[in-house]
Amino acid sequence: MKVLIGCWAAIIKDKKLLLTKRVDSKKNYPNCRTFPAGTLEDSDESLASAAVREVKEEVNLDFIPKEKLGFYETNTSNYRIIGFIFLWEWSGTVQALESEVSDIGWFSFAEDRKLELAFSYIETIEDLYDRKLIK
């Protein structure tokens, strides 16, 4: 099984979390909600720089990682993904990259738990709630 390193960003406004919806052409977790995220590429200088790149690519925000929250593991039929989440400072206007994202929304903790989430994101959302970063 191939191991991938994922990097994602917790983008929060008014105690709500920004989640994207994956396009239906995605092989893993089509039409599921995710954080702005992706995998570490050879050109990335660090895990944090990968998160910055992915946020810009997927939702057009400028993202400054301030803290690494932790890491989470997801196993799919093809991959083991070790994902690192970064907390934020961000600026800009949210705009979806249509080839990757079919929808964007701000969600409360109660709303998050009702969504079909990709990867190990439910664990991440629970950690954000426990830290009182989202309501």
Could you characterize the architecture of this molecule?
The protein has 135 residues and is an alpha+beta fold. It has a single domain, classed as Nucleoside Triphosphate Pyrophosphohydrolase (Alpha-Beta Complex). It has 3 helices and 10 strands, in the order E-E-E-E-E-H-E-E-E-E-E-H-H. It has helices at 47-59, 109-112, 121-130, and strands spanning 2-9, 12-13, 16-22, 33-34, 37-39, 62-63, 67-75, 79-87, 90-91, 101-107. The strands form 3 sheets. The chain has a 4-stranded mixed sheet with strand order 5-1-8-7. A hairpin with a 2-residue loop joins strand 2 (12-13) and strand 3. The longest helix is centred in the middle third of the chain and has 13 residues, at 47-59. It is globular and about 40 Å long. The model has no long low-confidence stretch (mean pLDDT 94).
Question: Short summary of the structure?
Answer:
By secondary structure, this protein is of the alpha+beta class. Helices cover 20% and strands 38% of the residues.
